Amino acid sequence: MAEETTIKDNQAAAYPMANVSETSREMIDAGVFYGRKKSKTNPKMRGFVIANRGGIEVINLEKTEEALSRATAFITEKVRNGGFALFVATEPAAEASIVAIAKKFGMPYVSNRWVGGTITNLKIIGARVDHLKKLRTDLASGALDKYTKKERVEIDREIHRLEELMGGLETMTREPDLFIVIDSNLHSTAIREAQVKKIPIVALANVDADPDVIDYLVPGNDKAKKSIEWFLKKVEAAIESGVKLRAAAPTPVPAKEEKKAE
């Protein structure tokens, strides 16, 4: 705790509070600047490091703010044009926030475990999601009452397993237009699938990440709950902006058909 306080004091000293933006103030409070040990830092991420305090890299918040601005502008534009995101975050510190924001906008999410082929074998995943929906419907209608107690236990287990793995994908009827990821290192399989399908990736990632696999990397603490919540609030605002812009767009007027010559 004392070490974290020292790092925070040094970060505040590096950015005098009178001279930093409101966003940087928020990041300091959320602990976004906490990097990793120097030995774990990816050399490609050195440009995002401003100092090393107590053996921990300190992330340059000016760089983070610049990256955040680019990332949120991209998200807004995608949503404005009718796109949607797939949220990927399986660490406990991110689960509640990621589920809340995804459900708010009716977008898919993975908060338990990434199933290989979620994007590259979308038809198969879609079939499993449909199976889950049918089991739910049968359960609600009483159609499962005909099974024995032992069979019902097995069916209940299957529903629970599918809920954990596929429950967040029910709204994904096609490939997502972008990924929003917390901790790219933790979700390397998801990142690879997005790359195969050429789906842009927005990620909150620490200095141990590989920036070459992320289209819109926002350097920051990807382990702490407060830091993750700060990032997701910015993402939420970007999506809301896109939704409003889309709603305000004028409805195209169909061209009048030309009268056929008699």
Structure, explained:
The structure is a single chain. This protein is of the alpha/beta class and 262 residues long. The chain folds into 3 domains: 2-60, no CATH class; 64-120 and 173-248, 3-Layer(aba) Sandwich (Rossmann fold), CATH 3.40.50; 121-172, Helix Hairpins, CATH 1.10.287. The chain is 48% helix and 13% strand. The chain has helices at 2-14, 22-30, 61-80, 92-104, 122-141, 149-166, 188-196, 225-248; strands at residues 34-37, 49-53, 56-59, 85-88, 109-110, 178-182, 201-205, 216-219. Helix 3 packs parallel to helix 8, helix 4 runs parallel beside helix 8 and helix 5 packs across helix 6 (149-166). It is globular, with a radius of gyration of 22 Å. Mean pLDDT is 88; it is low at 14-18.
Short précis:
The chain is of the alpha/beta class and 262 residues long. The protein is 48% helix and 13% strand.
Write the layout of secondary structure elements.
Elements: H1 2-14, H2 22-30, E1 34-37, E2 49-53, E3 56-59, H3 61-80, E4 85-88, H4 92-104, E5 109-110, H5 122-141, H6 149-166, E6 178-182, H7 188-196, E7 201-205, E8 216-219, H8 225-248
Parallel strand pairs: 4-5, 4-6, 6-7, 7-8
Antiparallel strand pairs: 1-3, 2-3
Helix pairs in contact: 3-8, 4-8, 5-6
